[in-house]
Amino acid sequence: MTNFTGINNWGGTPYQMPMLPLPQFDWNTGFNCGLFNFTTPASPAGKSSADESYEDYKKRIQAELEADRTKLKTSFEERALSEKKVEEIKPLQEEVDKIDKQVNDIKSGTQKDGSVVVRPKSKELGFWSKAGRWLGNAGAALKNMGKAIAGFEEDGSWNWKKCARNVAITVAAVGACFIPFVGPAIGFGLAAAGVAGAGVGIAKGVSRLSKARSEAEIDKAQQDICANAFIGITAAFGLRGVKGLKASMQADKTLVASKGFRGAYNSKVSSAWKNVTSWENKYNKSTQLEASAKQNIVELDNRINTMNRTPGSSKIIRKILLKRRNVQAQKLSELRRLKNTKTKSELDALAETCTKDVRKLIKYRENMMRTKAKTPDKYASELAEYIPSPNAKKCWYKPSTWRKNEYQLAIGGKNPSHYKELLGLTLTSQASTVPKVVGGIERGYSGPMLMSAEYTSSEAKEVLAKLEAQKADLESKIAGINNLDLATYKNALANKAT
């Protein structure tokens, strides 16, 4: 025993090396001592390692691996089937969500009388969709103005008293514009009032739009702005027709002096109607166009000569004036050529190269001759000059040609209606401001066209019932898929594939 008293003395007791028992080995229990216990792995139950051969061991391990592999494969298949179920359910659930949104939109858009207006949600709209909403509200405003003028109430019912009153007001306004002496002045006042009133209406609409808190308020404000803008723009065009106020009133004096007051009134109405419906009257405007072209050339020449004499005048403006002068000169040349061109083939050739105004006149001439061709005996000389040698023949397989004469067949086609021009007059005539303002005041409000849906109370109930039935059917399908166990679901997929 070694004594470490000089190095370390614990409580006066000298430090001594501990004595550890040596491990004992036994074939049955392994190593064993007082502190450690090492044992060998146990053999499989019922067998000792000595009883299992190497081949048996390999088979057992292989069987265990196969069992694990089968279990893993089954797990993957079950997971794939579960994902397939989720995939199949997803579009069905999306349809359910859409139906829920539609139902909520209908319920939130229900009015006091039970009717429904489903409007677009501002928060869901992008830039182009918002622009589309403005266009939709412009269309709705014009539609509602037309309905108001025709006497339809906001609920869709027709009020014949309102219709009669509005027609009377419109007729009175149109008639007032044809009254000698005062007609032009009244027209001027109507158009000016329309422009001014529209400006106020637009300002009020803008103010309401800035304060709008609901989708209905947004649509109403936008429709107010669009309706008043329409009235203002078309009234401004109407003002262009009364620029020659003094000349019109002087012409009225001359007309009254020759025909009397009533005769002058009837003459103005008749003249206005013929200017729209008579192709011959339209064609005869070539004389006015020729005089206008001459006047424009004189005015442009004077301006160009003034600029030539003025040092430092703009060369760019002079070029623009020269270009305008050349256009007028070309038009004048074409109008003079038009006078001397008689046949349809020559006029068609001229139409390919001439200016827009002259091309219109050539078309008017064709329409005029097509009308006269209905009574060829009355206009024989004019038709023979327009179509010198009509060679067109009737076709036995075209019934439309059976009752037409050779001139009608040679000219071909048919005359367009006058609706487009009548609509243009409706929009730009001074008197047309009156019915437009009436429609603007009495119109109702609706959702923007093509971006909203409207239902009566009964229609809304019917739509809701259909939506609920669709939702129930979809939810039934979803539940059916969810309730299938994976084995049954796998078989169902296999049956679908075959």
Strand order of the largest sheet: 3-4-5
Distance between the termini: 92 Å
Low-confidence stretches: 1-17, 27-43
How do the SSEs run, as a string of H and E?
EEEEEHEHHHHHHHHHHHHHHEHH
Oligomer: single chain
Write the layout of secondary structure elements.
Layout: E1 9-10, E2 13-14, E3 24-26, E4 30-32, E5 37-38, H1 54-108, E6 116-118, H2 127-149, H3 160-177, H4 183-211, H5 215-240, H6 245-277, H7 279-283, H8 286-309, H9 315-340, H10 344-351, H11 356-372, H12 380-386, H13 406-411, H14 419-428, H15 433-442, E7 453-455, H16 457-483, H17 486-497
Antiparallel strand pairs: 1-2, 3-4, 4-5, 6-7
Helix pairs in contact: 1-16, 2-5, 2-15, 3-4, 4-5, 5-15, 8-9, 10-11
Quick overview:
The protein is mainly alpha-helical and 498 residues long. The protein has 17 helices and 7 strands.
Structural description of this entry:
The structure is a single chain. The protein is 67% helix and 4% strand. It has 17 helices and seven strands. The protein has helices at 54-108, 127-149, 160-177, 183-211, 215-240, 245-277, 279-283, 286-309, 315-340, 344-351, 356-372, 380-386, 406-411, 419-428, 433-442, 457-483, 486-497, and strands at residues 9-10, 13-14, 24-26, 30-32, 37-38, 116-118, 453-455. The relative contact order is 0.12. Mean pLDDT is 83; it is low at 1-17 and 27-43.
